[in-house]
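In response to reviewer comment 3 from the previous cycle, which asked for concrete evidence that the modeling workflow produces usable outputs, we include below a single protein chain processed end to end. The sequence was submitted unchanged, and the resulting structure tokens are shown without manual editing.
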Amino acid sequence: MSAPRRIALVVNPFTLRVKGGTHAPQLARELLGRGNAVRGFGAPEGQIPRSGEELDEEGRPIGAGLGGILRFRPDRIVAYDALSPAAFQGARAARSLKVPLVLVEAGYAGDGNWWERFLRAVGERLWGPFVRRQARRVVALDPVAKAQAVREGFDSSLVVHLPEGVSLDEFRPGLSSSLIGAHRIRGRVLLYVGRLSKSRGVGQLIEAFARTVGQRPDWSLVLAGDGQDRAWLRAHAERQGVGSSVHWLPRPRREELPGLMGAATLLAVPALDDTVRGKQIPRAMACGLPVIASRLPRFESLVEHEGSGLLVDPGDLAAWTAALSRAAGAPEMRKRWGVRARELAETQLAWSVVAARFEQLFEGVGVEAPLPEGTVPGAKSSG
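The workflow returned the following structure tokens.
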């Protein structure tokens, strides 16, 4: 473990729910457990775990905002959402304190909604160049976020992919779920967790299920979520002749997810494009649950094809039908996939691993003067 540090986590309240909402609290908890002093800024009181100190070196309350960051006197600043007000605030504090700024970028779902696009445009116009000059690293949580950071002008040599973590204590093999009995679900379970939308490939998943294991009495398709297409999808299942084998669960609470995944046989993520983040995949892997997912950049970085599951061309009904048929007919292979999924979760996705890699990153960033806009790190002067 590296020497303890003082770390400020600055989050963006405008996009906190989807960008940093779970990452910052979990990272803070792990960094605290590793002996660092940590404090969050920008989040509601109590959302981000923090060190117990309430006063600065001169006996003044640390408080919030830029003044609070300066009084906390961190030696590393982590700010979420690379062109956000949080990034600007983190950059100002980093310049004043002469400490490194590390940005965390979760990326948008697709191009983001209109509000997210508006905030990104405002950030680029008002403080984008300043933030880019101050940032010593950008941590992208997946390949889509990494590509976004580069498009937004951050030098590719500063952008590193470091996946979001998963709790191995909360999500683990061998769990069971009362939801299975309550909904009279029998046999092996093909599980989908997420929004019930035709645009997420759920209709094709139902059709692939109907063409394969949906014809057997020992398999069930469990769709856990809500969405405006629920009625259409239910009718679609009836038209496919598998209405009695498809079970419709409300969106599971966070505490219900580990058991539901522990009771499942396969997790399906049939997304059609990168508007789906795939946040259930690491959780399933930690539970030892094999995953069949669309071959998209976010999922390719998580699922080891033929190792922890299968990657299938998005929107290809024939390919999805073949994948389900193959996975359903090979229980020993599914068992190997599950073991490998848990192994990958332990070695690459555990929050303890993620926090250790952040500490290594903190050691590798210096306090050198910010680079001029457009400068490539390491490039030699032509003069």
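Confidence is low (pLDDT under 50) at residues 369-383. We consider this sufficient to address the reviewer's concern, and the full set will be provided in the supplementary archive.
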